[in-house]
Each structure stands twice: as structure tokens, then as C-alpha cells.
Amino acid sequence: MKDIIIMSNRELHRVEILQKLIDKQLIEPEAAEQLSLSVRQIRRLKKAYKANGAKGVVSKKRGKPSNHKYPDAVKKLSLAYIQEYYIDFKPTLPVKN
To answer: Does pLDDT of 47 surpass 90?
Structure first.
């Protein structure tokens, strides 16, 4: 049974370019130019693609929260503060109770 890999259009394009690179239809600088990456990044992607196939090109951060996300407790505290001291202020962020 084969795994199903969910990929964005950008990642699919990367796989196509990397396959052309491996098949010697492109050279690294050309691939770098087409993907708007450095030659060093192309080598890193090529290595990951050879080792893991298309799965190596998919972002490892997908489905994980941002490193810059504030904890939910901070959001709740700020909303409580706004509701208490600034009754006429309506925040534009979604409020879930």
C-alpha cells in the first residue's frame, strides 16, 4: 500500500524540477533560477528528494503552530481586559467562548 502525500502546487513544481535535475535535463544553477532558490538549497532539496522521494520536499512545519504564536491564555486575558476597560472597543479577531 502506498502512502498518500498532500502537496501544494509549489511543492509539486519543486518535485518536477528536481526530477529533471536528477535526470540530467537541468543543471543546478538553472534549477535554482527556476525555483528562486540558491544552488546550496537546490543541493539540500536534491539530497532530501533522493533519500525520501517526494516526501522529502514537503514542509516539515505543515500542521504545526507558528513559533511566534501567543498562547491561548494570553488571548483570553487580553480579551477580558478589553471587555472590562474598553467596552466600546470591538476587536476584529474571532471571539470564541
So the answer is: yes
